[in-house]
Specification:
This protein is of the alpha+beta class. Helix content is 22%, strand content 42%. The relative contact order is 0.21.
């Protein structure tokens, strides 16, 4: 659900990274833009690059079909 916090435990070879993340829907982002009096002009769901890191190749393959970042371009509403 929107705003739900979850913990990510990512293993990279012998190392481990733990961080907290939050789930936000596209509707949440659009509402934030509207509340800031901005108009969306472009959106890009950036996919991760092809797996080149041999240590983390399995993870990269799993993530290949899902956006990793959401980039939005907006302008101030008149």
């Amino acid at each position: 659900s929107s705003g739900q916090k979850y913990v990510v435990n990512k293993h990279l070879g012998e190392n481990s990274i733990i961080f907290e993340n939050f789930h936000w829907t596209l509707t949440d982002y659009m509402e934030c833009l509207r509340n800031a009096n901005l108009i969306l002009t472009h959106i890009d769901e950036c996919k991760p690059p092809h797996p080149t890191d041999k240590i983390d190749q399995e993870y990269n393959i799993k993530r290949r079909d899902y956006p990793t970042y959401l980039v939005s371009v907006a302008k101030k509403a008149l």
